[in-house]
Amino acid sequence: MKGLQVIRKFIESSRVIERAVREVLERLPVRFRYGISYGPVFRHWLAFLKESEKWDRDRLEAYQVEQLRDLLIHAGKNVPYYKKVFADLQFRPEKIQSLNDVKILPYIDRKTVKKRHDEFVAGNIPKDRLIPADTSGTTGIPLTLYGTKETEEKHWATVINLWSRIGYSPASRTIFFEANIRHGGRDNLPYKKYGNKLILSSNYFTDEWTDRYMEMINNFRPEYMIGFPHTLAVFSSYVRKREKSVYDGLKGIIVYAENLYGWQREFIRDVFGARVFSDYGMVEKVIHGGGCEHSDAYHLYPQYGLTEYLDPGNSRHELVGTGFINYAMPLIRYRTGDVCEGVGKVCDRCGRNYETLSGIEGRMGDFLINADGQIVSVYLNIDFRLFEDIERFQLYQHIPGKVELRIWPKHINADIDMVLNAIKSSFGPQGDRMEFAVLLMDKKEFYPLVKYRMVEQRLDIRDFIN
User: Fold this and answer.
1) In the chain, what percentage of residues exceed pLDDT 70?
2) Given strand 435-440, what is the order of strands in its sheet?
3) CA 430 from chain center: how many Å?
4) Which residues neighbour 383 within 8 Å (Cβ) at sequence distance 6 or greater?
5) What's the CA gap between 459 and 102, in Å, rounded?
6) DSSP codes, 41-64
7) Torsion angle, CA of 395/399/402/404, rounded to 10 degrees?
8) Residues 28-48: what's their mean pLDDT?
9) How would you class 366 by CB atoms within 10 Å of its CB: exposed for 0-12, middle for 13-18, buried for 19 or more?
10) Span 49-172+223-363: which CATH code?
């Protein structure tokens, strides 16, 4: 064990070293991976989630009040934005007695955080401990957020706890679909395999690569497949069209990062014959949830954060989150732009006293259609610092193979060509069959109240799946 401790300390001493060694760690047996890559915070949080899921509602709410109070005290002392807000409102976080007491504070949203970015970063955390993470820019407003290693360990422990409800563990043989992977191997192929993981690029969904992917899947014999809902729906359509033999040993298919439509769930399940399990979360790390062993309703983790429901009318509510796990850049009463329905206080199937949602709308599958009628996933794996001179951008499509890149510039000297080239390169070879036209928009245009989409897609994906 002493050897593992030395290695862990060496890795944690530098975030650059840590990132470089992660892929090597994934090749190791699970017991070594847990010993080196995941620290005591991960293991403690995993055990805590398992134990606290048995708590009654009063105990869970008492825990939330305690966590909310601690977070607000920290923010009032160390986060410039909240120092000012608390002073202006004469707000005393140490006097918090109930969850309703937070409602005196204003809502924030992505635009607020982007505009006053540095004011949200806690001043008491050394810069070399901050871990950056870029949002996907699905609202047209990409954003860099900061956390710490402790934040990441708590988040991934939550993910593992959620996925374990359908039997998943890091030891499971798993296929991941990713829009952008660094091609590895001597032949520079769009997949890589190590240990118990096979990673396939979703930018290579062609008849030829579907055949090869299915051959690899059948030989690999996975227990789980993981990817975006629209990615797995598109792949399922290719499999059905090609009438390929489908490996029937899957225990589950996990989808994340996007809204899962009912037709997608049914279509993927029918092709692969396995349960489709939803994971709901975000880079902002203010809310996390997913299904349970028996139900597809979303169960929100009360240990992860406080969820509020802003009523835009009818029976639908906008989700507002206050995350408990990130003290480096705390977001309090953050409007996610995602809309839910069917709010409940307990799951009758599993018995957990977690708030449940029958459905979530938002972050719908982002895709484009190229000139060949092929569906291209939109996940921009680029340096969002390129967008510092741009207020927002949008990809608009109503004709296959033709895309309008709509840009709202902050400054007249914004490097539009560099932005266009970066976006096109994200699509890999699929982007060669799309023609882009740049439109500069009026920067004075008002932001709509509802969530703004990075991709405004007027074509129906089902026309191209079938």
Assistant:
1) 82
2) 435-440, 402-409, 390-399, 455-457
3) 23
4) 422
5) 42
6) HHHHHHHHHHHHTT--HHHHHHHH
7) -30
8) 69
9) buried
10) 3.40.50.12780
Query: In angstroms, rounded to a whole number, what is the distance separating the alpha carbons of residues 182 and 201?
Result: 9
pTM to 2 decimal places? 0.77
Residue owning tokens 């497949």: 225
Element (H, E) at 224: strand 224-227
Structure-token match 């969904």, residue found: 205
Q: How far is CA 130 from CA 37, 67, 79, 120, 123, in A?
A: 17, 21, 14, 13, 11
The encoded tokens of residue 319 equal: 């989700």
Q: Around 149, how many Cα atoms within 13 Å sit in the side-chain half-sphere?
A: 19
Q: H/E/C letters for each residue in 279-322?
A: EECCCCCCCCEECCCCCCCEEECCCCEEEEEEEEECCEEEEEEE
- Amino acid 161 reads N
pLDDT of residue 448: 45
Are the CB atoms for 83 and 196 separated by under 8 Å? no
| Overall fold of domain 367-465 | GMP Synthetase; Chain A, domain 3 (3.30.300)
362, amino acid identity: G
CB–CB of 397/458 below 8 Å? yes
**265 beta partners:** none
Can you tell me which residue has the tokens 């029918």? Answer: 270
Cα atoms in the 13 Å half-sphere on the side-chain side of 23: 10
Question: How many other CB atoms are found less than 10 A from the CB of residue 447?
Answer: 15
| CA–CA distance, 319 with 310 (Å, rounded to integer) | 6
Residues whose CB falls within 8 Å of the CB of residue 277, separated by 6 or more in sequence, listed in order: 163, 165, 166, 252, 253, 254, 255, 290, 291, 296
Alpha carbons within 13 angstroms on the beta-carbon side of residue 212 total 12
Q: What would the pLDDT profile of 361-414 be if each residue is shown by its tens digit?
A: 765 446 788 898 887 877 666 666 677 777 778 899 999 999 999 988 877 777
